[in-house]
Amino acid sequence: MLKAFPDQNVRDQSLRHVRVPPGTLRYDRPATRWFEALPIGNGRLGGMVHGGTDRERIQLSESTAWSGGPATTDLNPTARQQVPRIRELLFAGNHAEAQRLAAEHLPGRAPSFGTNLPLPEVQLAFPEGVPAQDYRRTLDLDTGLVTVTYTQGEVRFTREVFATNPHGLIAIRLTADRPGSLTFGLSIRDGILPGTTTATGSSVTFNGHAYESLHSNGQQGVALEIRAHLEAEGGTVHRTGDALRLEGADSAVVHVVVGTDWAGADPRARTESLLAAGLEAGYESVRAAHIADHRALMRRVSLDLGSAPPELTVLPTDARRERLASGKADDELIALYFQFGRYLTMAGSRANSPLPLALQGLWNDGLASSAPWTNDFHLDINTQQNYWAAESTNLAECHEPLFGLLERLADQGRATAEELYGAPGWVAHTVTNAWGYTAPGSGIGWGMNVTGGAWLALQLWEHFEYGRDETFLRERAYPVLRGAAEFLLGYAVEEPEQGLLVTGPSESPENWYLAPDGSRCSVSMGATADRVFMEAVLRICAESAELLGVDADLRTRIAAARHRLPPFRIGRHGQVQEWLHDHEEAEPSHRHTSHLSALFPERQITPRDTPDLARAAEVTIERRQQAPGWEQTEWVEANFTVYYARLLKGDTALKHLTSLISDASEANLMSFSAGGVAGAAQNIYSFDGNSGGTAGVAEMLLQSDGKDVELLPALPADWPDGSVCGLRARGGLTVDIRWRDGQLALASIRASRATDVCVRYGTDLLEVRLAEGETLALGVG
User: Fold this and answer.
1) I need a labelling partner for 68 at 20 to 30 A (CA). Which of 185, 187, 555, 663 fits?
2) Which of 64, 40, 658 is nearest to 343 (CA)?
3) Which residues contact 553 (CB under 8 A, 6 or more apart)?
4) Which DSSP string corresponds to 260-310?
C-alpha cells in the first residue's frame, strides 16, 4: 500500500544523494562527417565540432539566418469563395471533385517563404606532422564543453570548445604542454551564402546574405556578419589573404560571434558588442559563467538506470550505439540519450532565444534546407515534439521562444482567418517561418492542416499546468488560446447527417484515404485530428476563462459546441478512425498518426477511462508497422514511445525507444529522418527524435494530468533498479523516485505552491494536501 512517511526530510535527502552526473559522449577519432561531429549551442548560435588533428571544422548555424521574407500575397485569392463549395461536395460524397477544387484553389502561394540556412565553417588548419596518438574527443553534458586531446610528436595538444549563453558567443581555447608549439591558420570557409571574407590583424570576418532560390526568390533574406577573433599568448600572427596564421604560440583563444538583421537588428553592432564583452571578461570568466549557467539547468534532473560493466564503459559512444543496435542491452546509454535530449533542448532554445527550435533544432546540416521541405517550423507535429521534453524534464524556461512565435502567429493569423474563411480569431496551418507565415502550405495533401496553430497553442497550457502561473495565463496564454477557440467556433459547420459540429475542408496530416468511388483523397470534413484539437482548445479556453473570471458568454458557447463534436469511432479493422467516415487508407504504411494525438499529448483516450479506444489505438499502431513499406522515422519511434507509455506498456515503449536510438539516431546520437521518406534523398538530421525520446523516458517514469501524479506508470521489466530525480509534474511539483526489483522503493514530491495531490502507484491512490515548499516522502509498506 502506498503511504507517506513522517520522517520525510531525512528520506528526501537520502534520495537526493543518488544523483549521478549527466554523462559524456566520447569518441576515439575525429569526426569525418556531420553525423559524427559534436553539437554545441547557446540558444541562438550553434556549432558542430569535428575535432580534427589536421583541420578543426566548426560548422555554424544561427536561428535567425533565414532566407525569404514577409509577404502579403500568401493566400490564393480564389480560395475563400471555393471553401463553401468544397464543403458541399464533401458532404454530398463527391470526394474526387472536392479534391480537385481544393488542389486548385486552397494551397498557399508564398512568393518567398524561405528557410533557415547553414552558415560557413570556422576552420583551424594545423601543420602537417606525424600521426596523432592517444586521441580523445568528448562532449561533457554536465559542463557543455567539447574537449579534444591528442599527442603529436612529443607534444600533448588540448582544445576546448563551447557556446555560451551569458556571453552569446562560441569560444575555442587551444593549448599545448610545450611552449611555442601551437601553430595554425584561422579562416571562415565552405559556406553556401553569397558574401565576402576579409582578415585584419586579429579577426576574420564574413559579411553576406541568407539568399537562396529553392524556397525563396533569391533576393530576400537576412544580412549577416560572422567574426572570428584571435588572441594568442606568445607567437606571431600574420594575415594571409582572407585568413590569419598564428605561429609558435603557447596558447590561443578564438571567439566566434554572429549577428543578423532579423527583426531590424544591426549585424555589425551585435558582433562588435558581443566580442567586446567577451574580450573584456576574459576567457576564464566567460568559461566559468558558461558552466554555471549550463549546470543551473542541466543538473536539475538525474537519471540512473544502472551502471555499465567496466568493459562497456571503455567503448566509444558510437561503438556502444552499434552494440545496442545488435540487440545487446545498454541502459546506461539510454540514460545518456535521455540527458542528451535535455542538453540539445537547452543548447537550442533558451529564454532569450529569438526563435524556437526549427525542424533541425539549432543545427543545420544543409540537407533539409535543400530538400523539397524546408528547415522551417512544421506545425503538424514536429515543432510540438521539439518541446515535449521541456516541462517534464525541468527545462520550462526553454519553452519561452515558442511562445513568442505563437504570439506572432496569433497576430498574423487573424488576417488569414478572415480572408480565407471569414472567421474570427486566428489560424495557422502546416508550416510557418521566421516571418509568421499562416496561410495553407503550398501543396495539397499536406498543406491544409487547419488545426496546426491550435495544436501548437496547447504548449501554452502545458506550460501553465506545470507552473500554475496565473499571470502567464492571463497575459500570454489566454489571449492566444481564446483567439484559437474563436476561430474554431466560427470555422466549424454542421454536418447534415447527424448535426455534428465538424471542421473542414482540411487534411489529417499528412495522410490520404480512399473515397467510396476509389478516388485517392486527402481533403475531408471532420477529420479526427481536428476533433481532438478543437475539443482540447475549447476545453482549455473555457477552463482558463473560468480561472480568470472572464468571458462568460464565450464559455457558454464553448459548452454548447463541445456537446456537438463527433465521438471517437472504431473502424472496421478495430482501429481508431482517422476520418469521420471509415475510409480505407490510401497509404497504410504512412508515418503520421495524427488522430492518436488523442492519446498523447491529449488524454482523450486512456487505458483506464476508454479501454476500448485504447486498444483501438494499439491496433492503429500495429497496422501501420505491419504494412509493407512502413515509414519508420525518428519522430515516429519517439511518438510510439510516448504512446505506449500512455498505454501503460513500458516494455513496448522501451522497444521503440531502443529502436529510436539504434535505428534512427546516428554516431553522435543525433536523430535523423531516414532517406527515402518524404522525398529525402539521404538521412537528414531532425531534432524531434532526440526531444521526443527524452520525453518518452520521462513519461515511462512519471505521468501527471493536473489531478493525479502517477509513479512508474510504464516501468519496463528491463529496468529493475534505478532512480530519477528532478522530474516535473503538473501543479508545480518536482518528483524524485527510486525503485528496486521493479517496485517503488521511495519517492518524494516537492510542491512549489500549495496544492492537493492525488498520488497513484499501480492501483494504490493516496490523496494529500501539500503546503508551499513542503516535501512529501512516499513508499510502499
Assistant:
1) 187
2) 40
3) none
4) E-GGG--HHHHHHHHHHHHHHH-HHHHHHHHHHHHHHHHTT-EEES-PPPH
Within 8 A by CB and 6+ apart from 546, the residues are: 555
**Cβ 722 vs Cβ 334: under 8 Å:** no
Whether 300 and 257 have beta carbons less than 8 Å apart is answered as no
Q: Which helix (H) or strand (E) holds 404?
A: helix 400-416
For residue 505, is the peptide bond before it cis, meaning its omega torsion is within 30 degrees of 0? yes
**Burial of 133: CB neighbours in 10 Å, binned 0-12, 13-18, 19+:** exposed
DSSP for 552-594 reads HHHHHHHHHHHTTSPPP-B-TTSSBPSSSS-PEES-TT-S--G
Task: Specify the 3-state DSSP secondary structure of 147.
Answer: strand
Mean pLDDT, the chain cut into blocks of 10 residues (781 residues total): 68 52 93 98 98 98 97 94 98 98 96 97 95 97 98 97 98 98 97 96 97 96 98 97 98 98 98 98 98 98 93 93 96 98 98 98 96 95 98 98 98 98 98 98 97 98 98 98 98 96 97 96 98 98 98 98 98 98 96 97 98 98 94 94 98 98 97 87 95 98 97 98 98 98 97 96 95 95 74
Which one-letter DSSP state was computed for residue 131? Answer: P
CA distance 721 to 724: 11
* E strand or H helix that includes residue 768: strand 764-770
**Distance of alpha carbon 43 from alpha carbon 362, whole angstroms:** 7
pTM of the model: 0.97
Q: Per the omega criterion (within 30 degrees of 0), is the bond before 601 cis?
A: yes
* HSE of 537, CA atoms in CB hemisphere, 13 A: 29
